[in-house]
Amino acid sequence: MNNAATLATAPSSVSGPVTRRTSLPAPSPASEPSLIGMLRKNVGKDLSTISFDITFNEPLSLLQKLAEEVEYTNLLRLATQAVDPIERLAHIAAFAVSQYANSKHRTSRKPFNPLQAESYELVREDLGLRFISEKVTHHPPRMACYAEGPGWVYNCTSSAKNKLSGMSLEIQPLGAQHIILNGNERYSWTKPKSYMRNLVAGAKYLETIGDLTIRNESSGEKAVINFEAGGWAGKRNQVSGICYTASGSKAAWIDGVWDSKLNVRYGSSHDPSHPLWLANPWPANTDKNYGFTQWAIQLNELTPDLVGVIAPSDSRLRPDQRAYEEGRITEADHLKTALEEAQRQRKQAEGDYIKPRWFKPTSHGTGEDEWEYAGGYFESRADGSLLTKAVASLFEL
């Protein structure tokens, strides 16, 4: 059994507040990998099927990347407390925009592709947050996540199509996001396309262009947030939007920058603006920490309170990702290859990939394949049965 699996079963006896790290164990590699070189070698291929060198990765999985999108659940708490439906909608719209902020300094590397049925939990009692994600299909790679807090529930199915478009990499998100407030209001949206610019020369940057429409499916209000094209000399990352009543009247105006702040005007576009969302401060030495936010720096940390508690399939226990985070790059590359080969062997031996434990397909949604939380994870965590109900063999070599 590998060391990560051993850690998973050693019981924790920690009590009291948890001290969380402020930087990664090892700095990110000094040189950036050549993404355009890799793309040229694989022209016409589905990028999800390409095996990239490990230096193209950052030390987080796609499942943990989904957990980055629930950093600002304080906006959902404010939405549950708002009496006015337009104010609730504005906070939901701000939450949808805030999910982009973590990508400001990340243009060169991608998260680890999880193994089938790999999972990730984030339980932050101090924030009133419980989160679980799981890889639910392997081809195409598709992730599902669920989060909950006082008065709100969040569901998301995540996948993407990527293609080389000129000197940019086009990223088309697939799958919808849903929030239920106070048990009776359902909001949904899908993300517009993003583009990784300047793949050949110049400073690379991420640009999102198009409309993000958040709909209140229960009562008909909607918010349309436009991610504006920056142009060669224009300001980047600008957003502007309008919240509409169920009858179609304009009721609130939102503007700002998706990586830092949003303001809102209620009632009239000429009324004074009010702060709606402000991004958390960036940590020191962001360039040496893969461009991570402080939230992201902590996501792969195996704090003592998690030992013997999290599922054996949790991304924190992946030996290749752990080695990579700690700067043992050659070892991490060998481990990554071995884990992927073990997954292929399981496929050949069993005739099918391991079925998801915590999510199930749902017919509710946008027409894309969507998954919803099937329940049971947090109950199993509480009663100690999680270690036997989750997949225990994913990371054994």
From TrEMBL:
GO terms for biological process: endocytosis; ER to Golgi ceramide transport; exocytosis; intermembrane lipid transfer; maintenance of cell polarity; piecemeal microautophagy of the nucleus. Residues 23-33 have a biased composition (Low complexity). Coiled coil: none annotated. Residues 1-33 are annotated as: Disordered. Signal peptide: none annotated. GO terms for molecular function: sterol binding. Residues 1-22 have a biased composition (Polar residues). Pfam families: Oxysterol_BP. One of its GO terms (cellular component) is perinuclear endoplasmic reticulum. InterPro entries: OSBP_sf (IPR037239), Oxysterol-bd (IPR000648). Belongs to the OSBP family. This is Oxysterol-binding protein. It comes from Filobasidium floriforme. The lineage of its organism: Eukaryota, Fungi, Dikarya, Basidiomycota, Agaricomycotina.
